[in-house]
Amino acid sequence: MEAGFDREGRLLGLRYRFTEDVGAYIRSPEPAGLYRCFGNMVGAYRVRDVEVELRAVMTNKAPTGLNRGFGGPQLYFALERVMDLAADRLGLDPVEIRRRNLIEAGSFPYETPSGGLYDSGNYQRALDRLVEMSRYEELRELQRRARAEGRLLGIGVATVVDPSGTNIGYVALARPAEQRARELEKSGSTEIARVGVDALGNVTVRLSTCPQGQGHETVAAQIVADELGLRPEEVRVLAEMDTGQVPWTITSGSYSSRFGPLGASAVAVAARKLREKMKRIASALLEVGVEDVEFMGGEFYVKGVPTKRVSWRRVAGAVHWNAGGVPGEVVVELDEAGVFSPRVSRPADAADRMNTSATYSFLADMAVVEVDRETFEVRVVEYFSVHDCGKLLNPRVVEGQVYGALAHGLEMALGQGVTYDEDGQPQTRTLLDYSCVRASWMPKVRVEHLETPSPVSLLGAKGVGEGHTMSAPAAVANAVADALKPLGIGVESLPIRPSVLFERSRRKVEE
Fold this sequence. Notes:
By secondary structure, the protein is an alpha+beta fold. The strands form five sheets. Strands 6-14-15-16 form a four-stranded mixed β-sheet. A four-stranded mixed β-sheet has the order 9-8-7-13. Helix 4 packs across helix 5 and helix 10 crosses helix 11.
């Protein structure tokens, strides 16, 4: 990767050369890792010119697949390391060089050179809050004292844009524009949900998002309860995906942090459609026009006459037991499908520009690490993050996603990686060699949230589950490189293994 800066430290242009080893057999949806972050190649920075060359190669290694945050860790490792290297050469603080280049709050929606459309954000505010909450100047003073004692303490920063709600049409970018012109155009971030009511007024939600523990059921129940004036425990959520029973599209599923912006929006659409149908039925029972009916607290009542009301359960029962009393224009079916498909998801243009995601979250992260001078083992001492994923639909679910993604990001930074010997034999065949995250790796973590609601999603929410898998490797890499400055060595690849640092230090001494 190459980057151009002016004397003030402002980015002029970026040039990427990414080669992805997809192993012996390329399989769908690869080479998605190359294109998922195509719209946000500039990260959080104002850049006019970007040149990108992406290449997928097949080798005799094991086939690759997609993992949490796919495409993001490698992009931001390169971009955020370049920002720190530029800061060193220009004599700037790593925070300051980022502050000079962040997209300004008044610029949203912001279109990137590669076609991404950042929906909302306040990046400067998040970075400023990160500096405040971490007591950055005090950390730098602590680092100066540690170095005087011979300790290797480092501080690393990363500012990252997290794409969510993938525009699945990005897979077409792997083919030339002239070939795409002869094919069916591809785009989409569509999701569908159904909300229905039985004869007793019990509400059931059916999801197509295929959750595997992300908490979709909890959030869906909460959304429907809010829309229908019920308690979440009164809402049953079914996440059993059967394409013969549940409506779906080719983009349905749980990937690319799409539930917050897309799945949740579809649930809200279905709930609102159902509420309006129930309102029309209630108007018949109350013998007033539909415009005179209001809904609150699970009951329908006549405007200005709050004593004239009918319960949610009574309206539901009327459909099942007294269909003749239902207004003629109302379809006697208390089951509504909600479809959400943001208009910002469009096919790639002839110039290979494309908005590859529906919404874009933001993270400003800081890692504090200490490297052992003898063993070169890295210990993450503290981790700070200011996180903006739009409207928080359920803060506790968001916290769980943040900590899970952070643990995964630390694993990518410090241990996760498949290695082969010179004959192509895998050397990381067991969990003794392939390091998974351990509880002892988790540092003291402090996370704060900003909320800049998205104008794209119905509820203002963006994705949340993958951002820290993108930011943590970059922040930790910058922190380790900062810690190793007294030794004259840096960080050039991930994962950061003690054996690699030891060998580089030995060679530096020999030089």
